[in-house]
């Protein structure tokens, strides 16, 4: 068997573009490597704070840093890239065009597949932290429109634990409050 070199590290097939955050990431969160049964490679996009991503559209000044980070992950040998925030959907086409490996910015990319599996008249439910900010730009960014695929968006209450920690950047999380009751 012949092995081919070209990278410093091996076995990190999935690359994850991370927002520049400091909040806790329990097991199961994309930012906790223990969430996976395989090694992943992280790349933090400096300056990409949640407040710059989770408005009606991500800050356009962040596109170039995300492209640079995606290219670094590709150069490091990952075979696919995802992100830690689905509100990056408007960057999907540009990020995918910038590298030669698959890029998945948001779970919204799955809506056409889910829609194709559903009987006529069914609506796809989207649960997100900031439902009031999700808009046509997020859907079109990953290649579809709510005119074609019916969706119902539900956001969280503004005083919920999740936004206080994950959007406002609190550095502690009471996991008991987030547990099912």
Describe the structure.
This is Aspartate/glutamate racemase family protein. By secondary structure, the protein is α/β, with parallel strands linked by helices. It has helices spanning 50-53, 63-75, 92-98, 111-117, 136-141, 161-167, 175-178, and strands at 14-18, 40-44, 80-83, 103-104, 124-127, 151-154. The strands form two sheets. The chain has a four-stranded parallel beta sheet with strand order 2-1-3-4. A two-stranded parallel sheet has the order 5-6. β3 (80-83), α3 and β4 form a beta-alpha-beta unit. The longest helix is centred in the middle third of the chain and has 13 residues, at 63-75. The termini are far apart.
| Overall CATH architecture | 3-Layer(aba) Sandwich
Compute the average pLDDT.
89
* Integer-rounded radius of gyration: 17 Å
SS element count, helices: 7
What overall geometry do the principal axes of the alpha carbons give? globular
Side by side, the strands of the main sheet go 2-1-3-4
CATH topology: Rossmann fold
How many domains make up the 3D coordinates?
Answer: 1
Quickly give the structural class.
Answer: alpha/beta
Give the termini separation. Answer: 54 Å
What's the count of strands?
6
Give the biggest beta sheet: 4 strands, parallel
Element order: H for helix, E for strand: EEHHEHEHEHEHH
Helix content: 25-40%
CATH class: Alpha Beta
User: Which spans of ≥5 residues are poorly predicted at pLDDT below 50?
Assistant: none
Query: What is the percentage of strand-forming residues?
Result: 5-15%
Protein name: Aspartate/glutamate racemase family protein
